[in-house]
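Reopening this one. Same input as before:
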Amino acid sequence: MRRLGRNLAPSLLACALLTSCGDGGPAFGAPRGATRQGRDIFRLWQGSIWAAMAIGSLVWGLIIYCVVRFRRRSDELPEQVHANIPLEIAYTVTPLLIVAALFTINMRTLARVDHLSAHPSLTVRVTGFQWQWRFTYEEAGVEVVGTGDHDPVMVLPTGATVRLRLQSNDVQHSFYVPAFLFKRDTVPGLTNEVDLEVVREGRYDGRCAEFCGLFHDRMGFVVHAVSRHEFDRWLARQRTQAGGARAGAFNP
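Same output, byte for byte:
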């Protein structure tokens, strides 16, 4: 039993590490992120879970060890210790160091996610209104507007830094793309600017994540990530159409 108590924590941790075999380790229920910023957030989530498992295994191992090692064997009380200064310092300082490390990692990840490039490749103004979205490609003069029957499609190039300028015409909305691990509010009178770099081509569903009125459920949209060449072709076609692009399916 004593040997079991001493070895339980590292054994549990070893079992947890064995489950990480595979491409990038376990996701722990979260998307891996289809943008560079989303992957930073995913790695933070993944690392936090590993840290929690390691600390939890250590704590439970120590608890079980103490229960087994110092269990009562007779009616006599064990030796009573008034204080153990080195031990008390250790279990006070160690949690502080763990919290400081996790805080530092969180702040560094937040700084990378919120960093704005000095020269973004593309700027898209995202405007939320009751009850749809408008995507305006500012340099190209192209606009995609959703309707009550069709969700708008935001076409983006992969491997490029895209600046989103988030605005609202009326009430507060929230621009949310689950696959990007990204959500940011659109607030009346305020412009939120963020940079995203999509790293994987595909179709990604988005929605408004802030209750904004009677038809809040209709505020869906689609992000279609394509190669830079395909994006340039799409943008050139939209310039030739009167009034720019409207909501509807993406046609390569």
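So the earlier flakiness isn't reproducible anymore. For the record, Residues 1-23 have pLDDT under 50 and may be disordered.
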